[in-house]
Write a structure and sequence with these properties.
Elements lengths: L2 E8 L5 H7 L1 H8 L4 E9 L4 E8 L2 H17 L6 E6 L2 H6 L3 H15 L3
Antiparallel strand pairs: 1-3, 1-4, 2-3
């Protein structure tokens, strides 16, 4: 079952393009995470918070990543990290225009579970 993680934490910056340049290696590492379908990076410089929404093929991959990423963020000196896990209701998500985003996830899940 598709599982989403929502991370949120206080963040002093950098923001925007500077953040993109600063965490390029981190983004590459995350992109290669086993079971990751996609990640949306979140930032709010007005409130001083950052985070992300990460979609995984299944709960085990999401939990493995949550533990890894919490350790990584803590090692970067960040605290106040919240990470919540959610099952994805694909039927409702498709009704509210998430179909294209979920098609990729559902296709990769089928590809993983169909015997060759």
């Amino acid at each position: 079952m598709l599982t989403a993680l929502l991370f949120r934490f206080p963040f002093p910056g950098p923001w925007g393009k500077e953040l993109t340049e600063a965490v390029d290696d981190l983004a590459s590492d995350i992109a290669n995470e086993r079971g990751l379908v996609w990640k949306i990076w979140l930032e709010n410089c007005e409130t001083g918070h950052a985070g992300g929404i990460d979609l995984f093929e299944h709960a085990a991959a999401a939990e493995r990543y949550r533990e890894k990423h919490e350790r990584r963020l803590s090692a970067m000196g960040l605290s106040g990290i919240t990470a919540n896990s959610f099952s994805v209701n694909t039927e409702l998500s498709v009704l509210t225009m998430a179909g294209a985003a979920l098609d990729q996830a559902l296709a990769s899940t089928v590809a993983v579970t169909v015997p060759s």
